[in-house]
Amino acid sequence: MSEVEVKIEKHDRWTRVFVEEEGRDVSHLNYGPVAFALGPRAPIGMAGIGGVGTNPQYRRRGLARQVFARAMQAMAEEGYSCVGLHTGTDIVAHRLYRRFGFVDIFVHEPAVKVLDPEAFFARGLTGRLSRAAEGAPEFADWRCDLTLQPVEAQAVHLRIESGAAEATPSAARADLTVTALRSILIRLWWGMLTPQFAEAGGFIRWEGEAEHWRRLKALLSLGREVVNEGGEL
Amino acid sequence: MSQERARVVVREYREGDEKAAAEVLNQYAAGFLGAAPVTPELWREQHEVEWRPPTLSRRPDCFRLAEREGVVVGYAVVRLPEGNGSQSAVVQELCVREGEDKEEVAGVLLADAEEMARSRGASAVLLQLCHEDGLVRRLTQVRNYDWLGPGTGVFMATVSDLAGLLDEMREELSARLSASKFGRWQGVLDIRCGEQSARLELVEGRVRVVEAEAAEPSFSVDVSAEALPLLLFGRISVGQVFLQDAMTVRGGDREVALEVLDVLFPQLPMYLPVSQSW
Q1: What is the dihedral of CA B180, B184, B190, B191, to 10 degrees?
Q2: A4: alpha, beta or left? (left if phi > 0; alpha if psi -120 to 50)
Q3: A-chain residues within 8 Å CB-CB of B122?
Q4: pLDDT (tens digit per residue) in B201-210
């Protein structure tokens, strides 16, 4: 991979490090001083990196690596004692950061309370169905009476029809019943867990027609594909 | 007959609250690594960032202050769904003053956040709080929240100047040392990690970074590049690092060396407030 000219531009609080091609900024990041403390008496001089990105057409040419290397050198010259950044463990950039000596310090752990289970699960499915409509027409004519049975809460009955899901008062005979801990269902709905993993690990049980289960698994897997394709570099 | 305490009431932010809010944050965050102490001006600035809504000037109603007898005892920042496709309200901060009533105050603030979320049609409330805070863990248990396990969001760091970082930490290290049984221990400690190294001098409970001279240190430690940030950022204990073979100790009494290191670099909970993210 050829070496390119990496430019540095000082702004008010942030410094922009970037590569230009044909007059366009095609790979870049920003850094600057951020608030951080290693104890009540230890505010430290940390540089924070943000806005890392490479134009999709220019990826896989080593540009991000060169931008990053130049930025790390500049931050060291400016006397920062450490460098921090927020990112995701499921994107390609995470590997690049590790190569530059970054270590996972703190993995965020969210908590959630579902206030309105019918709306929560129905909206989640409808959102996925509308996204799926573009690339996966098999969902457009999918009709399914689905019962979600959280182990520790009341069942939620949904009807999937015409590319949307809505709550129904009760399903006399659901086409598909899915039983799991509420937290597992939420993680599936938010794409934090794949249905394949949940099934293989015995976190989830289903009863009903296999074809409905196959489609639901495919639908719940969509979000994760989007995340995995969304590499920054 | 005991006198009944005044109720905790919650109201929205008003101009001038930043002084009390900054005090609350500083007191709450003192128990954690990560969050930096703020002045009232900085607290305000950190809550006026356009790309990190809500902001004080646009949505003062999202900044909820808990008061008891006119004194601010806690606050919460709640991001509400605003027709952007999100159906969840997000509690981005929840800080309370130290005191016997802090669980009650936190509970009142969270109940208020849930009520706001319901009234705006949110189907769920997401907490972006410190999962390493026992208060938050107890509160979520009582109020029927589900912890979803580690997500994909991660804070990463690397140490680019070991001696410089230890110098910035010297007051904190001194406080840790003087509060321990090694308060009067004297010695010189070398820390090395790849090409980086630093020498710490410990005298009468004071810690300072000194130039490495010819004299032998009391003991020296070599830490792996992977383990160094975890150790300095309180993510892993000295014992873990040692047992994982990511640290070697030379010279002196190894048991004492490990104990001194454990005092200087304890494993501690971390809190990274949304308002200080970038």
Answers
A1: 10
A2: beta
A3: 115
A4: 999 999 999 9
